[in-house]
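This protein record is not my work; I was only asked to verify it. Where you disagree with what is written, explain briefly why. This is what I was given:
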Amino acid sequence: MPAENAPVAGNLDDDDHPSYTMGRAADVLGTTAAFLRAVGEAGLITPLRSEGGHRRYSRRQLRIAARAREMVDQGTPIEAACRIISLENQLDDALHLKREMRRKLDQYGADT
């Protein structure tokens, strides 16, 4: 396989690779481009831009947008849904950091 194709093959497993155009992302989520723009404007996701300025979404971003879509479908205003998901993500990050710190402290204690 030529070296120039290696990055493309690697992108198949990359959840953060911006593989989806706005139209395709909206189709996959069963929503509209306006919904994706609103989620972006609320700061929940930030799509990458192609050289032509078109929004491109990753699978990770689509999962986040799908969560927002579920909440909106249940009656939560989009701004509130985005804020809730953002706070959930911050909590997950903090809990992960706490576990890592605890692991390192436990490891340090075992070394002394």
Helices lie at 6-11, 22-29, 33-41, 59-73, 78-111. Strands lie at 20-21, 48-49, 55-57. The first helix runs from residue 6 to 11. DSSP finds five helices and three strands in the chain.
